[in-house]
Amino acid sequence: MIVIDVGNTNIVFGIYNNQKLTKIIRLNTEKDITKKNKLLNNFLKSKKKFFDKSDTKLCILSSVVPSLNSTIKNYFLKNKFKFHIITAKNIPFNIKINYNLNQIGSDRLANFIYVFNKKIKNCIIIDLGTATTFDVIKNNEYFGGLIFPGINLSMNSLIKNAELLKAPKISKSKKVVNRNTSASIQSGFYFGYLHAINGIIKQIIKENNFKPKIFITGGLSSIFRDKILFRPIYKENLTLEGIREIGKKYL
After folding, report:
1. What is the distance between the terminal CA atoms of the chain, rounded to a whole angstrom?
2. What is the 3-state secondary structure (H, E, C) of 121-151?
């Protein structure tokens, strides 16, 4: 099975063999949509040998960039794959979604399906991607969530609009107060997002009066995993695993 998570910054391809994720391929995308589609088409053709190693001729797509969907769909249909695009209205599970079905991202749905299939009744899923998203699952129901700018997006905006600043590597910081600009930006983003995440977790728990498990995933989640409250469960490929759970319904 081929599972694909199309985000605003990266496209992630997961290849499953014998029910195990055996290969992950990432493509960093362009901003210009015409260039994106050309880059994606060339990339797909260059990776055909990897896709052919899939244990089934089935491709499941989660995408928050609809303008790229037809390029992916045409490639896999041409190569004799069964193809399915995830939407809120075609999830093959008996689930409750307390959210506008026309607006919820398929990646967030895939994250929900992962914990739903693990029979986790109450949880908060934090995904640190282009956007930082919180998804709240309460009593097996998708209860809602929140979205704010991702770390890299915020960093790029700061550097773009401040002539004298240069972007440091985003990483864990040992102390809040520093004595040079690079370290100050680094600690500002690390502790700023860390305390934002922990504060939001506390507020969600207070508003909903429940005791959730905390899951974290996404590009930069690993640098926060040991500082987030309530001993979060770090699952690097949670979205891919959720897409696969949906895909299993189509085998």
Report:
1. 9
2. CCEEEEEECCEEEEEEEECCEEEEEEEEECH
Q: Indicate if 125 and 201 belong to the same structural domain.
A: yes
Q: Tell me, what's the pLDDT at 170? A: 86
CB-based contact 17:55 (threshold 8 Å): yes
Q: Pick from 58, 85, 112: which residue ends a domain?
A: 85
- The pTM (predicted TM-score) of the whole model is 0.93
66 found inside a domain: yes
Measured between alpha carbons, how far is 218 from 12 in angstroms, rounded to an integer? 11
In this prediction, residue 30 carries a pLDDT of 66
Tell me which residues are annotated as active site: 107
Is residue 91's pLDDT more than 80?
Answer: yes
In-domain check, residue 78: yes
Q: Which residues, other chains included, contact 155 with Cβ-Cβ below 8 Å and sequence gap of 6+?
A: 167, 170, 185, 189
| Amino acid letter, residue 221 | S
Q: Is there a contact between 103 and 92 (Cβ–Cβ < 8 Å)?
A: no
Is residue 166 within 8 A of residue 159, CB to CB? The reply is yes
Give me the percent of the chain exceeding a pLDDT of 90: 80
pLDDT surpassing 80 at residue 34: no
**How many domains are there within the chain?**
2
Domain that holds residue 60: 2-85
Q: How many residues are given for the chain? A: 251
Interval 178-213: pLDDT, tens: 999 999 999 999 999 999 999 999 999 999 999 999
Residue 70 lies in a domain: yes
Q: Are residues 173 and 79 in the same domain?
A: no
Phi, psi of 72 (to 5 degrees): -70, -45
Are 125 and 231 in the same domain?
yes
